[in-house]
Structures are given as structure tokens and as C-alpha cells.
């Protein structure tokens, strides 16, 4: 049962850390490079004790190689041994619930006990691409009903049931609800599901969403008490200065997305101020990415501790794309070291 797994997930008051990876494609690189690098990062995450490795569905974005999310999950799960692998998330309005049940039922059959299914309500793209996906722009309005239909496909089949997910029916595929507003927090609470907040790019409603989720949570077969996760950007290096420089790749990419000109992940720059066209642009990007820890090992450790104290989350999802793959691997090493330091400090109290 999911509840039993999550109840035991937070030793020594320091919650588990997990990884959110968008399979970033750097300028000069290819999707093949990105997918290989993601597997290398997943293997590092497994060695260093991260709990899960999630991938996200985005379409028509040349800088993200995880559009076929279930396929990439299979790639990662097949190249690792113990870490949980899942979606953070699958954008359910883009799909028929039965198809997602079959895809994740197949993954759970191939990798038993290791697959998570995180669901989002947004399309994960622009409206032109929504049309190319042959989806109704208003499909998100049926999200609560689609979630419940999807849940039904994972339950054990009953006599007379005419539509089944094969494979899928009767399998243990934990469902999470993801969101950047209070909508999914309310729905996750009503359905008794774990909840993950996308604070790594939408920080404004983080604390209100967590409050609503915890206060309104209804126990379910899946979960006996609320279990909340939040995402944070982490850019770690040997010095604060180098970490700030490495973080400029994501800031540039986010800025280009806001300008309507998305692209591959650019190399870092020494002076981000020279890239912004106005103080308003700078303020917008800095605010959107404000749930971030950027700096040396000590700075990152303190920043993570402060975020955990502020939110009280049961699990922390860490993301952070970098142009240089070796620097990204090192960053996640530093974050793992930071968690170990926090655990030691908690034990010593």
C-alpha cells in the first residue's frame, strides 16, 4: 500500500530528496545526448540515495527531450536497479485515461514496485500544439473525472467490467497529483492522494496550496495521511560565484520562453543583467525561479534547510538543468552531501 511506503519515508526528520529531470538539450547537443545524460544522472541519483527520478511531459520544445514520457521512464528504469522512476508529470488532458493506465501498467509490469504516476492538469505546451495533439483545449476541465477514471483502471477488475487496462488492472501504480495552484491541492486532498507542488517555476501559491492540502485531506485506500512534496531549483558548485554563473543557463532559457522564443539550453554567462532588456524582465524571471538554492556546499545546505523549515514538506524534489553535464552531476552530488549533513545534524540534536 502506498500509505505504508510513504509513512516510513522520512528518517531523522529530514525528508527524502528526489530528482526532477526535463532531459535538457543543450545548444550544440542532441536529444540522444540528453537522454544519455539523463540516464547517467539517474544512476548517480540511485547511488546517492535519492528516492525517485521523475520526468516531465512537454511538447514542441526543442530544449526538452522527454515528450514521450512513458518511453523515457522505461529507458531510465531499465538502466537503473532500485530507484523509483515516474512522471512529474504526465499531462492527463493530452491523453485518454485508459491509454495512460496501459502505458504505466506496462511499466509497472516490467519494473514492479518502482513506477510512479504523477499527473498534471495543464497541457504542457502551447495551444497550437494542443491542436496538433488532437486534444480539446478545454479537456483540463474534466481533470477530476479523468483522474478517477484512471484510478478505476488500476483497481482489481470486477465481474462484468467491459473495459480493462491490460496490463494495469490490479497493479500497484501510485498516483500523485501535481500542481502550481490550489486546484490540484484541493483535488488531491479530496481523493486522498499525495500532492506535489511545482514551486520550482510557480512559487506564489506554494504555502497556500500546502495549507489547503493538509487541512482538507481525506484518508483513502491509497494514503492514510497527507504527504506533500515541493520542487526546488538547485545549482550547486564549489563556490557561490560559480553556482550563480551555472544558474544563468536556466534563467536565459526561461526568459526566452517568456519572450515566446523557446530554444535549447544556452551556455552560462558571466553577467545576466546584460541579457535582460528591462528591470521588469529581470524581476519576472527572478521571481518565477525564486524557490532556488544557488551556491557553494555550505550555502546550498543552509538554503535547503531553510526551505524545508518553511514548508515542512514530506519530500523534496530537486531540479536544476545545467549546460555542462559534468557540472550538473557535481551539483546533485553536492545536494546529496547536503542532505547527509542535515541528517547528521538532526541525529545529533
Structural description of this entry:
By secondary structure, this protein is α/β, with parallel strands linked by helices. The chain is built from twelve helices and nine strands. It starts with a helix and ends with a helix. The protein has helices at residues 2-7, 31-47, 69-78, 97-110, 127-132, 143-154, 183-191, 206-216, 240-258, 279-288, 297-311, 325-348, and strands at residues 17-21, 52-55, 84-91, 115-120, 175-179, 195-197, 228-236, 292-295, 315-319. The mean pLDDT is 94. Helix 8 links the parallel strand 6 and strand 7. The protein is globular. Helix 11 (297-311) packs across helix 12. The protein has an eight-stranded parallel beta barrel with strand order 1-2-3-4-5-6-7-9, surrounded by eight helices.
Write the layout of secondary structure elements.
Layout: H1 2-7, E1 17-21, H2 31-47, E2 52-55, H3 69-78, E3 84-91, H4 97-110, E4 115-120, H5 127-132, H6 143-154, E5 175-179, H7 183-191, E6 195-197, H8 206-216, E7 228-236, H9 240-258, H10 279-288, E8 292-295, H11 297-311, E9 315-319, H12 325-348
Parallel strand pairs: 1-2, 1-9, 2-3, 3-4, 4-5, 5-6, 6-7, 7-8, 7-9
Helix pairs in contact: 2-12, 4-6, 7-8, 11-12
Amino acid at each position: 500500500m502506498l500509505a505504508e511506503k510513504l509513512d516510513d519515508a522520512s528518517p531523522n526528520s529530514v525528508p527524502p530528496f528526489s530528482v526532477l529531470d526535463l532531459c535538457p538539450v543543450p545548444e550544440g547537443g542532441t536529444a540522444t545526448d540528453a537522454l544519455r545524460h539523463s540516464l547517467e544522472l539517474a544512476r548517480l541519483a540511485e547511488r546517492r540515495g535519492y528516492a525517485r527520478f521523475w520526468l516531465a511531459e512537454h511538447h514542441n520544445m526543442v530544449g526538452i527531450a522527454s515528450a514521450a514520457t512513458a518511453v523515457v521512464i522505461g529507458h531510465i528504469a531499465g538502466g537503473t536497479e532500485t530507484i523509483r522512476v515516474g512522471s512529474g508529470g504526465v499531462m492527463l488532458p493530452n491523453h485518454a485515461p485508459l491509454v495512460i493506465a496501459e502505458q504505466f501498467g506496462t511499466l509497472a509490469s516490467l519494473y514492479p514496485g518502482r513506477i510512479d504516476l504523477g499527473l498534471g492538469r495543464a497541457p504542457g505546451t502551447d495551444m497550437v500544439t494542443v491542436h496538433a495533439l488532437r486534444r480539446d483545449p478545454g479537456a483540463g476541465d474534466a481533470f477530476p473525472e479523468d483522474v478517477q477514471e484512471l484510478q478505476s483502471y488500476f483497481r482489481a477488475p470486477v465481474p462484468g467490467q467491459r473495459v480493462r487496462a491490460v496490463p494495469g488492472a490490479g497493479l500497484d501504480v501510485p498516483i500523485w497529483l501535481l500542481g502550481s495552484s490550489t486546484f490540484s491541492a484541493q483535488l488531491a486532498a479530496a481523493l486522498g492522494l499525495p500532492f506535489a507542488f511545482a514551486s520550482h517555476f510557480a512559487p506564489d501559491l506554494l504555502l497556500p496550496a500546502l495549507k489547503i492540502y493538509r487541512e482538507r485531506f481525506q484518508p483513502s485506500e491509497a494514503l492514510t495521511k497527507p504527504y506533500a512534496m515541493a520542487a526546488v531549483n538547485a545549482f550547486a558548485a564549489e563556490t557561490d560565484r560559480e553556482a550563480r554563473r551555472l544558474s544563468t543557463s536556466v534563467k536565459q532559457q526561461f526568459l526566452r520562453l517568456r519572450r515566446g522564443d523557446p530554444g535549447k539550453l544556452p551556455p552560462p554567462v558571466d553577467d545576466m543583467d546584460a541579457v535582460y532588456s528591462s528591470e521588469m524582465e529581470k524581476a519576472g524571471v527572478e521571481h518565477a525561479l525564486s524557490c532556488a538554492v544557488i551556491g557553494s556546499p555550505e550555502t546550498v545546505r543552509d538554503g535547503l534547510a531553510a526551505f524545508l523549515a518553511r514548508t515542512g514538506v514530506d519530500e523534496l524534489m530537486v531540479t536544476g538543468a545545467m549546460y555542462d553535464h559534468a557540472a550538473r552531476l557535481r551539483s546533485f552530488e553536492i545536494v546529496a552531501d547536503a542532505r547527509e549533513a542535515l541528517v547528521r545534524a538532526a541525529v545529533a540534536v
